[in-house]
Amino acid sequence: MNQQNQKISNPQTPVPTTSEMNDRDFVNELLTTEKYMTTAYCTALHEFSHESLYQDIQSIFDESQKAQRKLYDLMFQYGWYSVEAEDSQKLQQSYQKFQQTIQQQSPYQQ
After folding, report:
1. pTM for this one?
2. Which residues does the annotated region (Disordered) include?
């Protein structure tokens, strides 16, 4: 099965093409901001030593991650976000290569 260059998406919901921001622009801006915020929270989580503060930021990170996913789902639903299908054979080859690398680097080899 050759799935190369196939887009996975929904029909695009039309938006006005004016110089003003439209719904797609606003949602895209929110998604970009959430991606930035989750990256920043993730970095902070790696560096916190204070447990209570760590737990607070972990909670905020989780909320931000959920918001990011909801925004992605919304954009995908309206056809404003698409992904490319990958050939299943390429996926299998990548997976096998990854498994070999893990086995070679494992300190628990038999």
Report:
1. 0.69
2. 1-24
Tell me the Ramachandran region of residue 91: left when phi exceeds 0, alpha when psi lies from -120 to 50, beta otherwise. alpha
Cite the beta strand spans of the chain per DSSP E. Answer: 7-8, 83-84
Cβ atoms of 83 and 9 within 8 Å: the answer is yes
| pLDDT tens by residue, 44-100 | 999 999 999 999 999 999 999 999 999 999 999 999 988 888 888 888 999 899 888
Query: For the purposes of burial, counting CB atoms within 10 Å of the CB of 67, is it exposed (0-12), middle (13-18) or buried (19 or more)?
Result: middle
CA–CA distance, 30 with 72 (Å, rounded to integer): 10
Here the tokens at position 2 are 């050759």
Residue type, 7: K
